[in-house]
Amino acid sequence: MSPLARSAQLLAIAIPALLLGGAYVGQYAFGLFPCEMCWWQRYAHFVALALALISTVVPPKRLWVALAGIAILVAGLLGAYHAGVEYHWWEGLTTCSSTSSGHSLADIMNAPLIRCDQPQWTLFGISLAGFNFLISTTAAIVIFILLARKSTWPPTARG
Q: Facing residues of 48 across strands?
């Protein structure tokens, strides 16, 4: 695997792992529970992480990295859709979900209702879904560029 493809592979592992880690820290440390559309983004990152990890052991490695890049792009596009719902640019397919584990009726009735059209947290006017869009789509584009470029390392001697 070329150094550029190896960099793409590391990025394909790091981005979903870091974004999922951040999502779980937000959820369990700061009470930012996911709505249904948040879960859609997480599912895409789980797939991306699994594909990227498969690329470390199963050939053709570049194919697995490319598939992970596609899954990261899907997560980013889901983030764009979700952000649009939060900013009320369009209506979503769903408006809310519950954090209940559903063990009993009391659990279900007492679980908080999480709305998909209301951001729980923003920074500079950008919601978590918006940041997922920015980070994931940028990372996917970089992964695709790295995979497409031919490595010239090590440099050849001229003369």
A: none
Residue at token pair 């895409």: 44
Which of these, 39, 48, 25, lies nearest to 136 by C-alpha position? 48
pTM here is 0.82
Conformational region of residue 102, where left means phi above 0, alpha means psi within -120 to 50, and beta covers everything else: left
Instruction: Delineate the domains of the chain, giving CATH numbers in brackets.
Output: 3-148 (1.20.1550)
pLDDT digits (tens, 9 = 90+) for 48-82: 999 999 999 999 999 999 999 999 999 999 999 99
Q: How far apart are CA 118 and CA 83, in angstroms?
A: 9
Contact 153, 3 (CB under 8 A): yes
